[in-house]
Amino acid sequence: MKACGGSYAPAVRRKYYLSGPQWAAAYQGQALFHAPTREALGFEQVIERYAEIGIGHWTTHDTDVIPTEALGKNQQAEIVGKIAGALRKHDLKCSMVTTETFYHAVWAGSPAAEAPEVREYAKFRVRNTVEIGHDLGAGFAVYWPGSLGYYVQGAVEETETLRWYAEALNAACDRDIEVAAAKKRPTLKHCLEAKPFEPQAEILLPTSDAMLAFIASGLLTHPEMVGLNPEYLHELMWGGAPRAALARALLAGKLFHFDINDGYRLKHDVDIGVGLVNPLDWLNVLVLLRSHRYNGPFNLDYKPPRTTSLFGVFEVSFPTAVDRFITLWEMAGEAIADPIIKEATDALKAGGGATDYRDAEAIVRANRELLTLHELIAHRLVQILLGLHRGRVYSV
Ligand code: 3MF
Ligand code: MG
Ligand code: MG
Questions:
Q1: What is the pLDDT of residues 137-166, one digit of tens each?
Q2: pLDDT at 2 over 80
Q3: Do residues 291 and 243 touch, judged by C-beta distance below 8 A?
């Protein structure tokens, strides 16, 4: 780690709105074809280790920390009290809570299944998560409807299922309004997270754009309370450009929260640490977000590889993910202020000066040399990424 450089002090790391999920650190390396490789971890250890690293915020699913059978019972209140104590002790904040609606057998037919009791149970779960969120001082609630879909076609009617899913979100928003008023707190920001494949074969809300359409569909009673939690890799997985997906969310005023990680196009959800696969794309993503003054959380929703030890999770995996994010964020600031990129961009926007808007050939001639600046800007961004703009050279 020391040899690699780029390590920031915990106090510096805490200045960024980074959050560490309970499930990311506690992930034991298991998968469909893989047994766990690491021991289980409780919230006490995760919160303590995040604090040492300098990750200032913590996020959780309800069932990451509360057994399913204890939800809504006295045992939940005890556990939530202990979590609040651990957060206070280590000076961490809970920024986001999320409901697990994909793992337990009760979700086999999705949280919007045909059986009315499943849907009532889903409402209970999301309302209960809203209450936990207020108890822990969170500002965001996230929903990943991963099991909203099917393996085999025909039995599930899509429009009906989406209407039923909206009813659960409406129940969460209604409960939020009540609790926020009683506690004199602002309501939470409710954020939908899309993923194109996995764990269902066909997913009803597979992309952030599908989520935007769902929010605007008229099915939600409080669409103003609901926005997006895009995940970088989830947009890349279907072949999209994450930066363009984020731009569409920004235009809609719905970029509330952002899950940060990395991976590959058209592969499964490999959840690699931010910038470890596509650092140039990540630089460009952060240029967009910085220039639009995105000020929501960056949630480290990745999974330390199963070849990393538990020691490595906190000594190698999380510190490097955090530090690479900070480096790329600062680099994005440098790219935004870069005089060469600025001059090129200004020149492109000034246009070639053709005077007759009906003369296509004249417009082409006037812009031909200017448009070379697209490539020049791209080269300049790579130079910034590699440090070449600061004179880093290799002699042969
Ligand atoms: C799955 C995910 C989820 C969601 C989480 C909601 C386990 O690919 O990304 O993480 O982010 O359920 O916050
Ligand atoms: Mg995620
Ligand atoms: Mg993911």
A1: 999 999 999 999 999 999 999 999 999 999
A2: no
A3: no
Domains of the chain with CATH codes: 10-336 (3.20.20.150), 338-390 (no CATH)
Is the shortest distance between the CB of 142 and ligand 1 below 6 Å? yes
Establish whether residue 23 lines the binding site of ligand 1, counting it when its CB lies within 6 angstroms of any ligand atom: yes
> Is 63 near ligand 1, meaning CB less than 6 Å away?
no
269 in contact with ligand 1, CB cutoff 6 A: yes
Average pLDDT over the chain, rounded to an integer: 97
Decide: 53 and 60 in contact? Cβ < 8 Å.
Answer: no
Spacing, Cα 77 to ligand 3 middle (Å): 29
